[in-house]
Design goal:
The protein is mainly α. It has helices spanning 7-21, 34-52, 55-61, 65-84, 93-107, 113-121, 126-152, 161-192, 194-218, 227-254, 259-269, 274-284, 291-315. It is built from 13 helices and no strands. The longest helix is centred in the middle third of the chain and has 32 residues, at 161-192. It is globular and about 50 Å long.
């Protein structure tokens, strides 16, 4: 069995290396308007996201309610609760930052494209996957900041819900709503050029990742993260994913979901969106010096979930 190397994961590694070698391009003093470009790019990503959403398919997907509840509970409750179990063991500020990074990962919505692709590979319920992955992104706009607000105040004193939701409204919700309203006119066009739009989405994400890591490298934040710490983070990411994956599978059997729905529950309920993660980090954490560390578990999780789910999806084929 061949394990396909994800080009986007390779691109992330290259961008982080560029940020390490040339951090000055992404700092506040840089003449390159990365903040403005990424802000406009974020709005366009979610405008196109709204254009891709089909209201009729979303309405039809509401029927399979047991599956939907399980997927959303796994995404927004099981994941955060698993990470919350470790909070009492934090002993210093460095551990607090790493724990917060894991909690941010746990509070994020599911990803759309890879969830649907993997469910398709494993012969799961594709319409339910599309519904759950799509609705997860919408729910995450409300739920993720609520989860993070419980703990970000401990580190960042200017975490203001009014400002956060205003930014989310302007940068995400308004573009999605406009996209939904124009879906009947431009939906077919967007579907036809979806591969090109995917390249655009990934380019904006890579730009945000570059800026986040450039600022962290410039301020020498990663000097506090040793190779041992990095290894522990990687192991933690794999344990978090594996625990959530098998727990979701166990619960799907307990509520008597059929094989197709079990596959969908596990594959959609255990994915985390790098798109939403990078966008939300920019809005939730602003210019926090540790934003590179905040994104680290998410990027490792992104690579891990693609690798493991690809293997599992291949094995689940009838």
């Amino acid at each position: 069995m061949k394990i396909k190397i994800d080009k986007f994961v390779v691109s992330i590694i290259i961008v982080i290396l560029i940020a390490y070698i040339f951090p000055q391009w992404g700092t506040q003093e840089s003449e390159i308007p990365i903040n403005t470009i990424s802000s406009i790019g974020i709005s366009l990503i979610f405008f196109f996201y709204g254009l891709k959403l089909s209201p009729s398919k979303l309405k039809e997907g509401l029927k399979n309610w047991k599956l939907h509840i399980l997927v959303q509970l796994s995404t927004f409750l099981i994941f955060p609760l698993l990470v919350l179990l470790l909070h009492p063991f934090i002993q210093n500020e460095e551990q607090e930052t790493i724990w917060l990074a894991f909690f941010f990962l746990a509070a994020l919505p599911s990803t759309v494209s890879s969830s649907v692709v993997m469910v398709s590979m494993a012969k799961g319920n594709i319409p339910a996957a599309i519904f759950n992955a799509s609705i997860s992104g919408i729910i995450g706009i409300a739920i993720t900041p609520l989860w993070m607000g419980l703990f970000v105040n401990e580190i960042q004193t200017d975490f203001n819900f009014t400002d956060i939701y205003l930014k989310l409204m302007l940068q995400i919700i308004v573009p999605v709503v406009i996209g939904l309203l124009l879906q009947r006119f431009l939906g077919a066009f967007v579907q036809k050029h979806s591969s090109k739009l995917t390249i655009f989405d990934k380019s904006i994400i890579l730009l945000i990742i570059y800026k986040s890591f450039a600022e962290s490298f410039e301020r020498n934040i990663f000097s506090a993260v040793s190779f041992l710490d990095l290894s522990i983070i990687l192991v933690g990411v794999m344990l978090l994913f594996s625990t959530a994956f098998y727990l979701t599978g166990f619960l799907s059997k307990k509520i008597n979901l059929n094989r197709e729905d079990q596959i969908t529950a596990q594959f959609c309920g255990t994915k985390k969106s790098l798109v939403h993660g990078t966008v939300f980090s920019k809005i939730l954490f602003g210019n926090m010096a540790t934003i590179g560390i905040i994104l680290l578990p998410l990027m490792l999780f992104h690579a891990t979930q693609i690798l493991i789910i690809s293997i599992v999806a291949t094995k689940k084929k009838p």
